[in-house]
Specification:
Blueprint: E1 3-5, E2 17-19, H1 22-25, E3 30-32, E4 38-41, E5 54-56, E6 71-73, E7 86-87, E8 95-98, E9 111-113, E10 118-121, E11 135-137, E12 142-143, E13 159-161, E14 168-169, E15 183-185, E16 190-194, E17 207-209, E18 214-217, E19 231-232, E20 240-244, E21 257-258, E22 264-267, E23 281-282, E24 289-290, E25 295-299, E26 312-315, E27 319-321, E28 336-340, E29 362-366, E30 371-373, E31 386-388, E32 393-396, E33 407-409, E34 414-415, E35 432-434
Parallel strand pairs: 1-3, 2-4, 4-7, 6-8, 8-10, 9-11, 10-12, 11-13, 13-15, 14-16, 15-17, 16-18, 18-20, 19-21, 20-22, 21-23, 22-25, 23-26, 24-26, 25-27, 26-28, 28-29, 29-31, 30-32, 31-33, 32-34, 33-35
Antiparallel strand pairs: 5-6
Amino acid sequence: KILVGLNKNFFSAVRALRVLSQTLLSSSTQLSLSSSTQLSLSSPICSEDLYAEIKCGSPDNTTTNGSFRSVTWSPLMKIRFDHIAHNSNLNYNQLSGGIPSTLGQLQHLKYLDLSSNLLTGSIPSSLTKLQNLKYLDLSSNDLDGTIPSNLKGLQSLRRLHLSENKLTGPIPDSIRYCQNLTAIYAYRNFLSGTINESLGKLSSLQSLFLYENSLSGRIPKELGKLSALRYLKRYLDGNNLHGALPKELGKLTKLRFLHLTANNFTGTIPTTYAKLTNLEVLKHLGQCSAVGGNYLSGPIPGYIEKWVNLTVLGLIGNNFEGNLPAKTFSLTKLRKLRVSDVNNPGISFPKEVIPEPNSLVSVVLRNCNINGPIPEYIGKWPQLSYLDLSFNNLSGSIPETFRNLTELFLTRNMLTGLPSWITDPKKSNINRTTV
């Protein structure tokens, strides 16, 4: 067997190594890369006994960026990567088996992406010793067990991706030591317990995604200290959270996306949320903030008109009462509006003409106990194509201006007459309707 050593005495200026010769390395069992800072593995040269604890079974000569058709971890090699600082191109490789604990010896590693493979077992605690690691992506595998309890060694970490695995247990308290974290993606796992208030100490955190887990308890008020937070997009959707919404979240003035769908929150929306003027989405549709599927009550906040950057607003399946502020329709960036199941004694559309919205494409006001006639001015909104006013107490005729819509739903009202243009494609743009 041939021992291949590539160190600073042999290649003093080498900062990156690309393995290109099968002839040179096909029979090597030990490879020392003592000063290289980057390693790129090209698939055409893959051999049975090559790479750092990686065994390549069926190299695909047509792929690029180190992508292999079938790859499994192998303990056959003792390959040293003393100064490797960047480990890329290991995602989408069908890597299987457990993550080798020896990866924790790569003390200069800054980037590790093992996402979208077939990895199983638990996350080795040795990875928490990688003090220079800035990016760790283990998402979309079949990993189980808990998140390592001691994360204190990952003080350089900026982005943590653990989503779409089978991880269980709580978010460890030691997350507080990862002060440089800007993003945490841990959605679609089986994480349980309460939301650790230590998250509130991550002053650099901008994105937090914890949806579709089994988290329970209340939202800790400490999250209101995350002054850099911009994305609570689908943040807590589909967990088992309950209690009141903390007023401290109103301090998150940079927040753009807020999702709280499908939990068990109660009480009213705090008045402090009026300060969230950078909100772009309030609901569970694409870019939005969601409060649907909870048990929130009280009046629909009148300060919605202050959310001037809102593009999506959804207040669905709660116990809100009262009227939707008329100025909501005049928010210049609002594209999608959906309000349903509002508890009130009966409301009607404003008689005065609402200024034409610039961006509204879709309006859903279902089961809001709206009575009286439908105003014609709604059909004159220039971008509107989808309108659903089902399950109300609307009366009178269907406005002629609605012929410009493409989808119209008016089920379970008290409307009279059926205009001929509704079913005539030559007279209207409507292609889907129920009346």
